[in-house]
Amino acid sequence: MAEVFPTLVAEIDRLLRLDDPSHPLAGTVGSLRFYGRCPCTETCTNLLTAPPGSAGPCFAQLERDGMDVIWLSLDPTGTAVVDIEVLDRNGLGLDSAGGAE
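^ thats the sequence. predicted structure below, dont judge the formating
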């Protein structure tokens, strides 16, 4: 993910550390593999970091100024990010790489 979306990865890490400086997911997103966009619809904003269908019931909501900006879907154990839903794309470098536009 860090090679494809460095700005997004940096923002996720920043927001995770704001909530908890030692958050167990902080620092892990950059090393995740990018599996492409979720194929469910043309307008889906999910970026897959695991094969489709890997998401479990857990997720982490990341906020900026009191508004949700990113949702992290987690595996069934709640310990690994399996997709990233970007609700606010402003300034996150999503306009070209990996077809995430």
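Strands lie at 36-37, 46-48, 59-64, 67-74, 81-86.
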